[in-house]
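Below is a complete specimen:
___
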Amino acid sequence: MNPQTSFIPKPSLPPPTGSAGPFGWIHRNLFYSPGSALLTLATLSLLAWGAWFVFDWGFTKAVWDASSRRECLDRSPEGACWAGVFEWTGALIYGRYPQTERWRVDLAFAVVAFWMAPLWLPRVCSKPVIALSAVLFGPVLIGYLLSGGPRGWTMQMGIALALSALAFSWLHVVLGWTTQRGLGQRWFRRAGRNENSINASVVLLVLLLAMVIIPLISAWSLPPVKTNLWGGLFLTFLIAGVGVVASLPLGVLLALGRRSSLLFIRALVIAYIELLRSVPLITVLFMAVTMMPLFLPVDKNPDKLLLVLFAVVFFSSAYMAEVIRGGLQAVGSGQVEAALSIGLGRWQVMRLIVLPQALQHMIPNIASNFIGLLKDTTVVAIVGLYDFTRMLQVPSQTPTWIGLHIELFVIGGTVYLLLCMSISRYSRRLERKLADKQ
């Protein structure tokens, strides 16, 4: 062969028939051998039988309108009784919360969604400040919406600051929108302001707005609703949400404390983490609900729900601390040494270099902790709170709907499945988004 002869590539041939497209995927993954084909057909047959059984029980033979469980059995003894589920839908969502006041629960969730919406919008500046304002002032407004009762000067000031902080969040959305269109950039350039000075100006505007809101809400009041009436799905969201929001920053602090060079702080944090991780959640709940009031004066007995929230936060933060510590150890020491060599302080290195990478590495584990916390909220029923799982058992204990079990737990399992899948899918999306930015 003459080495000077130029090589002329031949045109590429099309892939063999059946090796590409959906039929190729089916052949490679489901029917690549006689054994796999037999197993695939058996699995598909079992799934088809199960799907037909569920459809026949839940739709074809189901009773959708009835006044009692007995009527459902008389009309269709082999079908589902969805009439009881429809009648108890409000109780499953709100628990024993008064029906005339349930709009307050809806308003509270709407306020949370409206407050957190800027964090998911693009080109919004100061998102950490918005999240911090929601964590600091949101519980005051949400707590009063749900509990009501008399309001003193402190509560009025807290509500006014919360409403002003909510306006502060959406003011940043407006600034981001104007900056995207070039309006804000010219104004900022003429004013000679940076983001920190803008935040200071917005904070001053928030305080002035709070002074205006306080007289407007001075005569506004809501009837009190005791926490022993709270329940259902909204109580599960409340406990899990408070646990998630509070356990992450507390877990970060505990993880940093465990890596501290101060022996006393490191020993104290290690003892706290190991103690809480060595006992189940129900033990921590019993200690908080039954033992803690014994050490307090009778007139200072705290609310049971408040004790449960503290117990859940302290318990979940211990597990979160170990997750964060694993992420901190995944960041190479060379990056820290390089950052220190260019003059950055240790807290700057931790905030700007180490923690962002550690949290990114630990996104799957953090999501797993959140999913576990959502499911662990079911144990609060043991200490007398009517969460979603406990409310699923209440209809079957009433004379009218006695024996209504399967339908309610099907609904409960579906709700938990959708919630856990949503958290998992969001964590995977966030992980891909952060990976694409690198």
